[in-house]
């Protein structure tokens, strides 16, 4: 629920879910990825319609991005299932460390850059969006990264406004999450007890996402991003150090 609220408020923090499932619920990495991607589907479905309603969601580009992500996610699941559990755990912590650092770096003051309008971004080749979707989906599906933390900065580099980038990334997280969740649940020989966590995970994440979206204007999102990023870096460093020294 807390991670869902952070996503609703700021568009980030999804990458924390697999770590929560591994560290707090002591699930194995594959089961953690299955639950996390199921939750990402919920937050994506609940989050993107608001951006469409406000005119910040270019459907053409979203379609090609999602197409690439569907293919990339399938490939990423095969990579994730092929890796030994301890290697996958290390990758999860490294992704959290890099993601938290990326959030802080993106918050640094930058020189004003003129963003292109939808007409100009629409001139880009279809292959660009398919490639971005495929490459980021492979990384996300194999590591448990939520999607927006990787996709948003790339879309902004392509010229989309921050709101459009966040909205597109939320819809894209559905395209990544569906094949990833199915792949890990079907191919991961997951225990029945993990399946029983699916509904509570849906409900908690969904409530958090809706609550966060409804209260985004009341909370300083910048402060929350700093807290999430610093906390993520701290947890990742602590866990990685423990694995190296242990």
TrEMBL record:
Subcellular location as annotated: Cell membrane; Membrane
Sequence intervals crossing the membrane: 7-24, 30-51, 63-81, 87-105, 126-159, 165-187, 194-216, 222-241
UniProt keyword list: Cell membrane, Membrane, Transmembrane, Transmembrane helix
Name of the protein described by the UniProt record: Probable membrane transporter protein
DNA-binding found in the keyword field: no
PANTHER family named among the record's database cross-references: MEMBRANE TRANSPORTER PROTEIN MJ0441-RELATED, MEMBRANE TRANSPORTER PROTEIN YJNA-RELATED
Cellular component, GO, one term: plasma membrane
